[in-house]
Structures
1.
Amino acid sequence: MTFYDEVGGQTTFQRIVDVFYREVSLDPVLKPMYPEEDLGPAADRLTMFLVQYWGGPTTYSERRGHPRLRMRHVPFRVDPDSRDRWLRCMRTALDEVELSPLHDATLWDYLERAAYAMVNTLPSAAASPGGRPTLDARSTSEDSTETA
Ligand code: HEM
């Protein structure tokens, strides 16, 4: 029995993603990031991905190929703020679906790690604590006029 089966299969993942995108549609930072006005297709892709990841049908890869999630997120500005907003929407979704505590913790742990790994943009160097940009902040900063 896979995790997918244990939590209730397709229906459960669909419910999680439905609540998640309901929350995304209300978020002033996340909503404009989505290329399509209709969030339905994005919801389908996320559902298929999660279903496949947790041991359900592999429809995601049949339709979309290898997930390569970090690469697919490169066009979007995933910074700590959007990551936290994304996670807040997911937290609301998991709370509404009410999995068992163990299933909830397992899924949440994965989602948190995945969301942290998806960050591809750091806050601007000027905003970093102490004003001292790290190497990473420097290389992704839009402000390249800094001299010292
Ligand atoms: C950390 C904050 C994140 C933000 C702001 C974000 C935002 C986005 C955006 C704007 C899209 C494009 C919509 C679409 O065409 O589907 C997208 C796609 C997608 N995201 Fe995220 N995402 C985040 C994290 C994650 C995480 C943690 C996962 C997986 C656990 C994930 C899974 C996906 C998937 C599967 C797609 C569709 C990929 C495809 O097949 O084209 N995202 N995301």
2.
Amino acid sequence: MVESLTGNTWKAAERVAHLLQQERWTITGLSKVREPDYAAIQEAEIILVGTWVHGAFIFGQAPWAVNSIANLPAMRGKRAAGFCTFALNPGKSLDTLDRALGDTGAYVIGGFAMSRSKLDEHTEEFAARLVTAVEATDDVAPAEAAEAVEAIEAVEATEAVEATEAVEAAETVESAEAAGTV
Ligand SMILES: Cc1cc2nc3c(=O)[nH]c(=O)nc-3n(C[C@H](O)[C@H](O)[C@H](O)COP(=O)(O)O)c2cc1C
């Protein structure tokens, strides 16, 4: 999915898609982040999100429309990678993008900030890195991501129970003390 104002990010996405097809990947869809192709997302194992960097060039940089990522459907069990295109300096745009992608529940396997003046070189490098990252996480990533989420939820649930039990136990001791039975 792409967010593009003047076409650089869209061009980068098309190029990455083309390179990945050469690696025998199937591209389930290419859409705007704000008009997501839900069927393509559901079908895909890996979600790529590209956007352009907006800011004051040397400060305040952020991936444009990062908030629309929060409106994407939950992507637990899928892997995701972000990329952005920039002119001078992307700042921490990629970190922001990674966090937004992680918040969808996806397992983030990397990202890439591409200089708009080096799109050919940088799209190639991104596609190559993706192939490696996906191979490295093929068996483990989705299962591990889902397990990690379940484990966290289980711990949180136990903590809540334990906290309630601890309060109840303290109250019992206190009332026993007050009654002089201990
Ligand atoms: C309003 C505006 C603000 C921008 N701010 C930055 C910036 O802070 N840092 C930077 O490196 N590039 C900045 N750029 C450049 C774009 O990020 C860059 O040209 C990008 O490749 C545009 O992608 P697009 O063609 O997909 O819209 C800015 C561009 C615009 C139009």
3.
Amino acid sequence: MDLSGQTIDGKYQLVSIAGEGGMATVYKGFIRGAAGFQRSVAVKHIRPEFRALKNYVDMFVEEARVGSELAHPNIVQVHDFCAEAGSYFLIMEWVDGIDLGGFIKSYRDQQKLVPWPLAVAVGIGTLRGLGAAHDRVSADGTPAPVIHRDISPHNVLLGINGVVKLSDFGLAKARDRMASMTAPGTVKGKLSYLAPEVAFGKPNSVQSDLFGVGNILWETLTGERLFDGKTDVEIFKKIRTCAVPAISDRRNDVPAALIAVLDMALAADPANRYGSADEFAHALGQVMKQAVGVNAATALGQAVSAARKQLKDDEDDNLSTTERAAGNSRDIEFSTADIGVEPVELTQRATSQQLTTPNIKRQPTPPPVPPDKKK
Ligand SMILES: Nc1ncnc2c1ncn2[C@@H]1O[C@H](COP(=O)(O)OP(=O)(O)O)[C@@H](O)[C@H]1O
Ligand SMILES: [Mg+2]
């Protein structure tokens, strides 16, 4: 069902589908004001099939309300919540860019790895937004932390201006409930981002969110899912074991300090992780000092633009089967040399075969690492 062209609540005009997730379709839209004023918005249409769910509306109103209270430059702002013809819409700030999942994919498609300073910049931005939610206080000043619960590459939006914004605050609970009423595996791809203790049945916490950030940073640096498998059960087992493969087996340019930060963030025991998002962000900030002469926001913005163009070109190529038949493999020129960050060519260990299959799997037995490269 494509609602493009419709107007919601008399003021939000839907232009086109921007993305689809497990429980909603996101549209690019705009709101018109007086004197030709116009502003882009993202309109999230909650899938109507979930209407049968008990307390469906209450759940969204409550969670959208909590989400909309959070105001921070690194959090996607929720503006409004509307009902129209029995359907529900969340109106959010529009982020002109791509999500981190697309960003990682673009590098993978080109058989490149994300320059580590860009991964660090994504981490710091995500953690600033997350920290603001964790540090939330209620009107009377008592701590009222908001746990995100669904840190995953699709919920980290990257703007072509280099801004990092975390989205979908407060919607994870709703997603869980929906997942439990749909067939197993319907809400795809999210399982991989659970923290080990959550996979053992403990509730989500500040520390499980921080593990999530460690997880997406590991994926950004390697181009691979940290915990992957053919079945949910297989993935689940890997999460519980919390075996984190060494990044140095996949690329050798990542500073030891960054590897140490990720080791801490991805500790199996929550007590051994960072105490807060701010602490984790500070540690990444220290690592960033090694990227001398890099303006992270500018570099990230340029990389996001290039990645978006590459994904779009690829999509266009895929539509043109005649071109494909003629063997038109388009070379995408993307150099970050001018911003002082060179995308790293794949090491021989990350084979090109691994990078051309859509579901990259870790090599079951990584090749031996020379003693000097061992963490
Ligand atoms: N505020 C926004 N601005 C621009 N694009 C967005 C925004 N929110 C979501 N999107 C895009 O829409 C896609 C679907 O979003 P969502 O329904 O949250 O699904 P999921 O998080 O499960 O992937 C996202 O992956 C993202 O690419
Ligand atoms: Mg999302």
